[in-house]
């Protein structure tokens, strides 16, 4: 009895302690119970049903019990002739955790639910937006499992976004837990088609470096189609629910606290579940589950949904539900970077070529130059110190490449063994700081096990102590990291520009892939793509190698469409003399951190039109993958009646042109973009 009483008290304390979380500074609270009357009447006391609506009343989430399991469904309300029509985008889907302190998937009992409202504001300094006012309805459901052990589900429903996570209290004296698997699922209507990136088999590919989120998409594939490798799908995953809308599924708030997850193969027709890492990741080393102390909250599973793609492109849910994990040690500067490796490849990792690319950055007025892999052997540490001096004299700051190894793959580039353990890492970072380095690019990670997520977090945390920003490459998806880690810049986790060099196939499909990213990968986090290639042949001499199929204006438009706070562009020294001056002037002025993003039009894999704002300057960017030339009438109220610079493909569909034009007073702007072409409108900063 005594023991049980103590346990109850502990749980009560935990529940009370969790309350302030929902009324953060500036927050407002309310207790209006929201309940679906129809379903509740059917269900009765023993089988409660809760429906929560977003602050704008359009997005809904319904949770209820069925056969001892907690189930949810989600969608939006469409105004119909007879009132609000419920459009279900995610059908009845399971929730639950399987742990080493008990099973919390079946035999569950509903013990109660509370509701609240949350309103907070926050700033981002290095992302797609700079200021967010986040308002959400919060539903917390308390359940007991068959042994009477409690578990909570916390849901946040904001306009067009739903996030949920599990909260586990300390259970008596049990203060730690391993989560083996998760029942959380996402079931889609049968008419759904998918835009999802297959997870690679582990320990395959170049030097056994996979998985690294670099597989190819099949657009509009019927829901439930088995994936290419039978290993499920990497986040984020985009679902097209017929004519009813879109759902982007992802996760956020994953650092060293948990493993990264993905979606399983579909079962039962169209049910995808959260899947934890595969045993063979990280060369088979480390567990596939998550180890946590109690009380704990898991990372958030997120849904972005609506009738159009606008909420997907504009979502901030990866950042809304996480918090900064430490203070920045200094102000970290977004910026543009030159990068020799992409066109000049391994042979350029020598002192003279790096000086050339430092000069290129200086000529462009850019902030940074990235010295890629292989510098330790080819340049050496002593001459690197000289290179740092040269960069300082030129007013350019350096990012320096590192291999994440360690012992988890065969990637040979040096330097190795500098980032994998804290003693070597801190010594290296001390050296970098003493020489004025402003960033590192760390490559070739080992999958999504908690073991590896802890390494990402340790690198970020140590780097902040030395004033160093971090780009990850050959890596996992960032999950809220722009807000969680103030010195984090971007991650690859995409079929990046390097593939354009490696194979003509990727050049032939460049526009198709580019038209996926704003709706999928780049919608949830900064993307180190490394693009804007102005060479027509992708080699050092601009005279061999793969052939670029896209136009110059397409390439300029990707500088706007692709978002990364420190953007490694693929410009080469020959571009300064070979390209029209207006292209170079455009690249000299292009921002890399944004205040605002607006979806204008598009369809994944076919075309995209979006607008971004930096300060008072608006950019509109359009990419067209085809299959034919596309004429669009864009709604641009923010540019109504204003003069803009207009970059477009000439009449031959290829020759770049630039001039000024005026957006009509009604804000409409009509343009035609050829296949593999692009367009950009740029509004001068002084235009109000
Ligand atoms: Ca890569």
Low-confidence stretches: 1-45
CATH class category name of the domain at 2-320: Mainly Beta
Q: Would you count the extended β strands for me?
A: 36
- Tertiary shape: globular
Mean pLDDT equals: 93
Second CATH tier, the architecture of the domain at 2-320 = Distorted Sandwich
Count of discrete alpha- or pi-helical segments spanning 4 or more residues: 18
**CATH level-3 fold name of the domain at 2-320:** Beta-galactosidase, Chain A, domain 5
Largest sheet: 10 strands, antiparallel
Secondary structural class:
alpha+beta
State the helicity in percent bands. Answer: 10-25%
Spell out which ligands are present.
Answer: calcium ion
- Beta-strand percentage? 25-35%
Radius of gyration computed on alpha carbons? 25 Å
Q: State the distance separating the first and last CA atoms.
A: 71 Å
What does this protein look like?
- Among the domains are: 2-320, Beta-galactosidase, Chain A, domain 5, CATH 2.70.98; 498-527 and 540-563 and 595-688, Immunoglobulin-like (Sandwich).
- The chain is an alpha+beta fold.
- The protein is 21% helix and 34% strand.
- The longest helix has 17 residues, at 2-18.
- Residues 1-45 have low confidence and may be disordered.
- It has 18 helices and 36 strands.
- It is globular and about 70 Å long.
- The structure holds calcium ion.
- Calcium ion is lined by residues 214, 473-474, 492, 496, 498.
What would the keywords be for this entry?
single chain, 688 residues, Beta-galactosidase, Chain A, domain 5, 10-stranded antiparallel beta sheet, 7-stranded parallel beta sheet, 18 helices, globular, disordered N terminus, binds calcium ion
């Amino acid at each position: 009895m005594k023991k049980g009483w103590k346990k109850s008290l502990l749980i009560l304390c935990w529940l009370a302690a969790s309350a302030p979380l929902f009324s953060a500074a500036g927050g407002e609270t309310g207790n209006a119970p929201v309940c679906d009357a129809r379903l509740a009447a059917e269900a009765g006391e023993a089988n409660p049903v809760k429906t929560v609506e977003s602050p704008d009343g359009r997005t809904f989430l319904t949770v209820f019990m069925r056969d001892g399991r907690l189930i949810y469904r989600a969608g939006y309300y469409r105004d119909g002739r007879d009132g609000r029509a419920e459009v279900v985008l995610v059908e009845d889907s399971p929730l639950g955790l399987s742990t080493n302190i008990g099973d919390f998937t079946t035999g569950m009992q509903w013990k109660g639910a509370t509701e609240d409202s949350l309103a907070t504001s926050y700033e981002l300094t290095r992302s797609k937006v700079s200021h967010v006012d986040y308002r959400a309805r919060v539903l917390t459901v308390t359940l007991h499992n068959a042994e009477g052990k409690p578990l909570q589900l916390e849901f946040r429903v904001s306009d067009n976004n739903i996030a949920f996570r599990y909260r586990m209290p300390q259970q008596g004296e049990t203060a730690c837990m391993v989560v083996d698997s998760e029942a959380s699922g996402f079931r889609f209507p049968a008419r759904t088609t998918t835009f999802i990136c297959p997870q690679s088999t582990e320990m395959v590919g170049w030097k056994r470096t996979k998985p690294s989120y670099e597989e190819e998409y099949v657009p509009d594939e019927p829901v439930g189609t088995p994936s290419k490798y039978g290993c499920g799908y990497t986040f984020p995953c985009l679902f097209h629910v017929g004519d009813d809308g879109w759902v982007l599924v992802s996760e956020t708030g994953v650092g060293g606290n948990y493993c990264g997850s993905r979606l399983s193969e579909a079962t039962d027709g169209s049910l995808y579940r959260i899947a934890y890492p595969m045993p063979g990741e990280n060369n088979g080393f480390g567990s596939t589950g998550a180890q946590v102390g109690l009380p704990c909250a898991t990372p958030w599973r997120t849904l972005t949904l609506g009738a159009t793609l606008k909420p997907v492109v504009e979502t901030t849910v990866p950042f809304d539900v996480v918090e900064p994990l430490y203070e920045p040690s200094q102000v970290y500067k977004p910026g543009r970077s030159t990068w020799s490796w992409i066109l000049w490849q391994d042979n350029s990792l020598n002192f003279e070529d790096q000086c050339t690319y430092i000069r290129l950055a200086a000529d462009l007025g850019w902030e940074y130059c990235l010295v890629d892999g292989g510098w330790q052997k080819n340049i050496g540490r002593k001459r690197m110190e000289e290179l740092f001096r040269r960069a300082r004299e030129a007013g350019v700051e350096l990012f320096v490449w590192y291999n994440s190894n360690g012992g988890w793959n065969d990637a040979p580039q040096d330097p190795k063994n500098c980032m994998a353990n804290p003693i070597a890492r801190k010594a290296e970072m001390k050296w970098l700081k003493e020489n004025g380095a402003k960033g590192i690019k760390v490559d070739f990670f080992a999958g999504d096990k908690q073991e590896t997520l802890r390494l990402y977090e340790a690198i970020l945390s140590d780097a902040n102590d030395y004033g160093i920003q971090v780009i990850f490459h050959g890596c996992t998806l960032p999950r809220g990291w722009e807000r969680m880690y103030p010195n984090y810049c971007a991650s690859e986790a995409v079929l990046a520009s390097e593939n354009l060099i490696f194979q003509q196939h990727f050049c032939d499909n460049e526009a198709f892939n580019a038209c996926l990213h704003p709706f999928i990968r780049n919608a949830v986090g900064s993307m180190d793509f490394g693009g804007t290639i102005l060479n027509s042949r992708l080699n050092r001499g601009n005279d061999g190698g793969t052939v670029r199929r896209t136009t110059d204006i397409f390439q300029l438009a990707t500088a706007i469409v692709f978002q990364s706070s420190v953007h490694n562009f693929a410009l080469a020294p020959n571009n300064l003399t070979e390209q029209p001056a207006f292209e170079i002037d455009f690249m000299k002025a292009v921002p890399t951190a944004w205040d605002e993003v607006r979806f204008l039009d598009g369809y994944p894999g076919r075309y995209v039109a979006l607008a971004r704002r930096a300060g008072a300057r608006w950019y509109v960017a359009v990419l067209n993958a085809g299959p034919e030339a596309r004429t669009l009438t864009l709604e641009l109220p923010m540019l109504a009646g204003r003069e803009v610079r207009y970059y477009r493909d000439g009449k031959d569909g290829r020759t770049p042109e630039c001039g000024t034009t005026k957006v009509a007073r009604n804000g409409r702007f009509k343009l035609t973009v050829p296949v593999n072409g692009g367009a950009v409108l740029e509004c001068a900063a002084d235009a109000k």
